[in-house]
Amino acid sequence: MNAAFSTVMEFAPLAAALFCLVTLVLNKPMNGVHLAAVALVELGLLAFVVLAIVRLATGGHPAGGLLTFVFYLVGSPLVLPVAVVWGLMDRSRWSSAVVGVACLVVPVLIVRMNQVWSGA
Amino acid sequence: MPEPTIATRRTGAGRVIVALYALFTVAAGSRAAVQIATRFHEAPLAYALSAFSAVVYALATVVMARSGRTSYRIAVVACSVELAGVLAVGTASVVDPAAFPDATVWSGYGMGYLFVPLVLPVAGLLWLRHVRRGSHGVSPAAAARSGPGRGRAGRRE
């Protein structure tokens, strides 16, 4: 997987998570800024998944196992939308926390997808 | 599913805990599915434990998100089983690494998952106790269901 893009996709969600932490501490619920940040991260994640699918379609093979890799491709884009819906149901500071946790998951998913691809 | 009651366990920090349980259901479940589908014979114990942990997480997710006393009790049991599981499997994997040729969610006390599997059941149990103590109040529907005379001292079941 593209190293520079992976790095961006590991640090951008961390920045979003940090913002969520700040609003959690300030006792603020999820707002438009959270949604915009999550939307950007989700777009990046979708781009990552599309790139991975292109790699697979053009003969690439994940050394760590195709099935595992496919599970990650399918599951990764679902994390943020589900978290946003779950968070929006309770408009308290904890909606920020839910979205923040989901943002923290994204770098893990990126790292794992890269590991599975390279077989590390 | 109709909205049954005002869910006390699903508000506030409980929302984060339920979200984490859902996440670990997917993580442990996916891992178990892949492991069992592709190479069960390599490490049957580890993979069976992955599947078991996924079931416990799934159960905990559902009952933590629901209100009602039965769900509450199942949630306490699920969190306790989970805590016992992570402690037992964690200890076993440290003492006898040969028995675990491949990792489970609970190996090394959940080290591969940043120790979240160790922290989560403790957080879950603390949250359940917090809700039980009623600092968030009892939902009217739950109070109506349990009938009159419901008091902490007089509860028996």
Structural overview:
The complex is a heterodimer of chains A (120) and B (157). Chain A is mainly alpha-helical and 120 residues long. Chain A has one domain. In chain A, 82% of the residues lie in helices and 0% in strands. Chain A is built from 4 helices and no strands. In chain A, helix 2 packs antiparallel against helix 3 and helix 3 packs antiparallel against helix 4. The model of chain A has no long low-confidence stretch (mean pLDDT 94). Chain B has a domain of 93 residues. Chain B contains 5 helices and no strands. Chain B is elongated. The interface between A and B is medium-sized, with 20 and 17 residues.
Number of helices of chain A: 4
Q: Which pair of protein chains has the largest interface, and what are the residue counts?
A: A-B, 20 and 17 residues
| Uncertain spans of chain A | none
Structural class, from helix and strand content of chain A?
mainly alpha
How would you sum up the major sheet of chain B?
A: none
The helix content of chain A is over 70%
Rg of chain B? 18 Å
Percent strand of chain B: under 5%
